[in-house]
Known about the structure:
The complex is a heterodimer.
Chain A: H1 7-23, H2 43-55, H3 74-86, H4 95-108, H5 111-122, E1 128-131, E2 147-151, E3 154-162, E4 172-178, E5 189-195, E6 201-206, E7 215-226, E8 230-231, H6 237-273, H7 280-310, H8 317-339, H9 354-365, H10 372-383
Parallel strand pairs in A: 1-4
Antiparallel strand pairs in A: 2-3, 3-7, 4-5, 5-8, 6-7
Helix pairs in contact in A: 1-3, 3-6, 4-5, 4-6, 6-7, 6-8, 7-8, 8-9, 8-10
Chain B: H1 7-23, H2 26-33, H3 41-49, H4 69-81, H5 88-102, H6 105-117, E1 122-125, E2 141-145, E3 148-159, E4 166-173, E5 182-188, E6 194-199, E7 208-221, H7 227-263, E8 265-266, E9 269-270, H8 275-304, H9 309-335, H10 346-358, H11 363-373
Parallel strand pairs in B: 1-4, 2-4
Antiparallel strand pairs in B: 2-3, 3-7, 4-5, 5-7, 6-7, 8-9
Amino acid sequence: MDFRYTPQEEAFRDEVRTWLEEHLVGEFTEVGPAAGPADDRAWDVRVAWERQLGEGGWIGLGWPKEVGGRGCSVIEEVIFNEEYAKAGAPGRVSFFGEGLLGPTIVALGTPEQKQRFLPGILKATEFWCQGYSEPNAGSDLGGVQTRAVLDGDEWVINGQKIWTTYAHHADWIFAVVRTDPEAPKHKGISYLLVPLDQEGVEVRGIRTMVGTSEFNEVFFTDARTAKDNVVGDVNDGWKVSMATLGFERGTAFLSQQIAFENELNDLIVAAQKHGATDDPVTRQRLADAYIKLKIMRYNGTRMLTAMARQGTVGPEASIGKLYWSTWHRRLGELEMEVLGAAAEIVGPDYGLDAFQTAFLSSRAETIYAGASEIQRNVIGERVLGLPREPAAG
Amino acid sequence: MNFAFSEEQEALRETVAQFLGGKSPSSEVRRLMETTEGYDESVWKQMGEQMGLQGLHIPEEYGGQGYTFVELGIVLEEMGKVLLCAPYFATVCLAANAILNVGSDAQKKDLLPGIASGETIATLAFTEPSGKWGADGIGMTYESSGDGFTLSGEKMFVLDGHNADLIVVVARKSGTSGTEGLSFFTVRGDADGLTRTALETMDMTRKQAKLEFSGVKADLLGEEGSGWDALSKTLDQAAVCLSSEMVGGAQQVLDMSVDYAKVRVQFGRPIGSFQAIKHKCADMLLEVESAKSAAYYAAWAAAEDNEELPVVASLAKAYCSDAYFHCAAENIQIHGGIGFTWEHDAHLYFKRAKSSETYLGDATYHRELLAQRIGI
């Protein structure tokens, strides 16, 4: 047990810091971190910044070198994220490609898929969105009804996806679709890669309670994709999609903890300014938020150490998702308490400040990527070994 | 950077768990908690002589094993798991640390080898009838009397005070207040003028005493007036130790809950298949794992003796107190009626959770302390 960094790790930190100092200039300094994974402010500037990261070799840090990644250790990824957050660099736009699809293709894709799709992610020239949820398949993802039928050398896709973050910015979607309607629920699903710029695809924004529209509905009407754009075997997409979710739960909360630390510091400063820190109850709540934020980091570090040793994140990752989403929701509530009456006043066109945005957008965080209730089921059944719920009638 | 125990540390955990599993089953806990002294002398001797547990983190030059707070934390976690009834916390986590923090080299050489071998039972007497955990709780004054010092007044809530051969006492110079004027003294358990009364406690697995001093001759420990910084550090270290102990108890009640939820059938199903119970268990696991992260990190900071210690000590004490109590309470709820009986062990953990939460300041106390320590 040792929480100090080695000289090699410190050297890597210097390299990251130096690169950020040299490149984080001009308009890039004005964007700042995202308020959440769905925040799409200043998209074009962020895309330009992402391309700089790509050129510098800072995308795909943990991917192996032979596919164009940097081959970094988990600890080096932590260091990069720490320095990135400290520098206040722009919110990342390539999460779905770099964080989810890329690792899935690295692990399960064909050589041709690696060659075709990974460079676009690494250079930030192609953007991705995730087509999992449907109107009738939310937590019960196995119930997807979007159909794909083979027609010669192409899949023909019909159906609808929903809650698709960034679909209006993306070039491609990775989607779970039903390819064998006769098979049992989880058996007849395939993991398809579909280009969005085609006649058979329509993307419609959904205005959320935050007032903005980063989530979308995606409609497929005889949309087409090449026969080879299946990751894993046909009808084996459930396994592939679970692998992707594993990447999501394993690494997403890491950089978030650092962003949360900045957010809590801002709140403490605001509380001091408003005189709220004289109130013993507010002091208790701020201290509680601080304690649980630090423990979020310790939990993450413990999990990463285990991951570095075992190579994978297990169902224990559900603990991390449940923890950070619950913590952030509570922080949003505390932000409103600290601001008091002023919290009610918004800017023109429902313009929200960072605290107001966090208060509202955090309500989505305990729902997406596996709702808290699903996480508790996963923890109960797969970590603690409790019996499963009997199947419905 | 790495956040895991070494193979040697895991082996230590295994050895200690095996030893305690044999020596401290529920039947022994129940036998000992009914006695006034509350521990088994032969087990205490074996802990010292065979296992070297009392001297685990005491430096080798003072007769100990020379390990750190990380290894001590592992041992405490295992002790908390089985509710070990012994004056270990008082002797090692309070008295030995106080002596290490404040004593002169000669005093350490004189006092610590006896503690390390298990020959000496010791404790720290700092709290008084007010029940305050900070410097303002210490009202007892000392007087210089020609060749030495005398103590008069009352100490309360002294862990194993009636068992201790050696009592480390904190008292203040007349006319001082707050963090000023505090000094440490040592007194023998059988000193003239000292009246010791064992207290009846709700948590019967950890014994407390009232100590009345009437002109008791005392030896100054360390320098006169060096008290507050050393006491504050001792209490931080003790809070870290207690957090480890609480983690063990919290893990145990989680295990009890999960085991029961798998076998108890109602409505034709194991109750653990109902989300109402399953989600309780999931939340308990989240808290237990988080408590471990906090306690292990704090133990590392204590081992390093770094500047983070005051903040992480309060952090760990606040979180682990809440987590242990919540898990112990849920354990009773999940067990239903059987969990409310004297016969079932659930109440022993529930009561230990409460006494541990209170001791050294509860979660509310430590959150305020943390707020001050991080400059809010």
